[in-house]
Amino acid sequence: MGNFLSSITDSAQRKDDHEQEASRLWREKDDETHHIIQRCPSPSASPSPTNLDIFPKYSSNNEDRHRREEDRNGEQQVVKKRDDELKNEIRIKHYSSSHKILLVGEGDFSFSVCLAKAFGTATNMVATSLDTEETLEDKYSGSEQHIRQLRRFGCMVLHDVGVHDMLYDPVLMNMKFDRIVFNFPHAGHFPPFYETDEFLIQMHKKLLLGFFKSSSKMLNEDGEVHVSHRDDYPYNKWDIKKLANNGGLRLIEKVRFRKVDYPGYSNKRGGDIESDKEFYLGDRPYTFKFSSAANSKVNSSKLMGRRT
Ligand SMILES: C[S@@+](CC[C@H](N)C(=O)[O-])C[C@H]1O[C@@H](n2cnc3c(N)ncnc32)[C@H](O)[C@@H]1O
C-alpha cells in the first residue's frame, strides 16, 4: 500500500514537473520570438566584484523566495499574455491564434502558411515535416518560400520529425499543444502496389496508429488531434476511429473538409514519386477531431460525481 501511494505521489510530481517544463519551454520560445518576457537577473548568478554591493546578500531562504516570486511573475505574464491573446483572438475554421498548434507531416508547408497569414502571427505554432530541408526543396517547388514566410511570422519550423517518435524529439518532448494537425496522412507510394492492396493499407494504418499514440501524449488538457482524411473506399478501410481508440484517443466530431476554407493551401501527394502533385481528395474528405480518451474518462467520472 505504502509503495502504491508513493508511486501515485511520484507520478503526480512527475506530471507537475513535466507541466512546469512545458510552460517554461513555451515561455522561452516567446522570449526568442517576441522578447515579451524580460527575465530578472538571477539572484543566484554570482555578482561581479564591481557590483557586489548593489546585490543584496541572499540567504538560501531569500533565494527560494526570490525564485518563487520570479516563477510567479513568469506565470502571471503567461496568464496575461493568454488573456490578451484571447481578447485579440483570430479564428480560421477550427483553429485560433490563441491555440498552441503542432502541424506534422507537412508537404510544402502551405497549410501552415495559411494559418499564419490568417492569424497575422505564428509564434504559437510549430510546423514540421518528415523530410529534411534539402529533400523538401527537391520535392516541393513552394517549400522554400513557405518556410521563409513561416519563420518571418515567428513559427518554429522543424524537419526530420517522424510521427512515431516525435514524443522523444529534443525540442518537442516537453511541449504540449491545443491542436495537433496531420492533413492527409499517407505512408507513400510503392508501385506496383495499389491503394486497395492490403500491404499498403497496413502501412498507412501503422503510420496513423504511431501518430495517435504519440500525439495523445502531447495534448494539453482540452487539446484535440485533427486528421483530415478521405472517407471513401479504400481509405475508409483504414478504420481511423478504431486506430485512434487504440492510440488513446476518442472521436469527438467529424466535419466535412473544404479546401476553400484554407486559402493558399495546396495539398500534396507526398511520397517519393511526383510529390509536388495534388493529392486527390475524392468527394468525401473529412476532418476527424479526437480528444484524449483519458480526459473523457475524467470528465465522465466528474459528471457522475455531480449526479450523486
Ligand atoms: C499525402 S501527403 C500530405 C502532405 C501534407 N500534409 C498536405 O496535406 O499537403 C502525406 C504526408 O505524410 C508525411 N508522412 C509520411 N510518413 C510520415 C511519418 N512517419 N512521420 C511524419 N510524416 C509522415 C509525408 O512526408 C507527407 O508529407
Automatic annotation (TrEMBL):
Listed Polar residues bias regions: 1-11, 41-51
Name the Pfam families on file.
BMT5-like
User: Which residues lie in Basic and acidic residues bias regions?
Assistant: 12-35, 62-82
Q: Name one GO molecular function term.
A: rRNA (uridine-N3-)-methyltransferase activity
Q: Which domain of life is it from?
A: Eukaryota
Instruction: Look up the record and report any one GO term of the cellular component aspect.
Output: cytoplasm
25S rRNA (uridine-N(3))-methyltransferase BMT5-like domain location: 102-269
- Which BP terms in the Gene Ontology apply to this protein? rRNA base methylation
Ranges where the record places region Disordered: 1-82
InterPro entries, sorted: BMT5-like
Q: What is this protein called?
A: 25S rRNA (uridine-N(3))-methyltransferase BMT5-like domain-containing protein
